[in-house]
Amino acid sequence: RISSNDLNILKIWDPITGSDIFNLDKHLSSVYCCDWSPNGSRIASASKDSTLKIWDTSSGLCLFNFVDHRHEVTFCSWSPDGCRVASSSEDGTVKIRDAETGLLLSSLIQAESWIWCCTWSPDGSMIATTDDKYLRVWQANTGRLMFHDQPHSDVIWNCSWSPDGLQLATCSFDCSVRLIPTLFQMKIN
User: In what order do the strands lie in the sheet with 145-149?
Assistant: First the structure.
């Protein structure tokens, strides 16, 4: 199991005994999000300190410390194949990196507001993002905006793809959850 908290610590703990395996304490401020790589060998963590960190789960070592977001990093997620990791930020960007080398592959720029969430489609071809008003879906390889919608009346806090990739679920500060079909041909920009 893994958890994050307001004490700048990312904890890996044994779910049966409850004992700590590692306390990953290199962040300088609250850890907002953490995500296991698909093969379980790494963890990504996003922090209020404006960093994305990649950790080795067998040693607890910080493998990468990315400092190129200008504001708080709000979310992180691994591509389904584990080859890329995405991070979203209050600076209005999503950065996509090669998970092995750390090389920045692309930046999705949506600068009018914070990006709260970034999540990969089940096949890894698209990334959904949420912000103060919109759900947006981008082609992961080209950065092309494929779809946007305003399904809520308040901040869209999070989103999640259905396992078959045919729907996105969104949740909002407006106290609602919406299911959006991913038939993007209907609203392509």
Answer: 115-120, 126-131, 135-139, 145-149
**Per-position pLDDT tens, the chain of length 189:** 444 545 666 667 777 888 877 766 666 677 788 899 999 999 999 888 878 899 898 888 899 998 888 888 889 999 999 999 999 999 899 999 999 999 999 998 876 778 999 999 999 999 999 988 889 999 999 999 998 888 898 889 899 999 999 999 999 999 999 999 886 544 444
Task: Report d(CA 127, CA 149) in Å as an integer.
Answer: 14
Which pTM was predicted? 0.85
SS3 sequence of 100-132 = CCCCEEEEEECCCCCEEEEEECCCCCEEEEEEC
Residue 174's alpha-carbon distances to 26, 42, 153, 154, in angstroms, are 35, 34, 6, 5
Contact yes or no for 116/75 (Cβ under 8 A) = yes
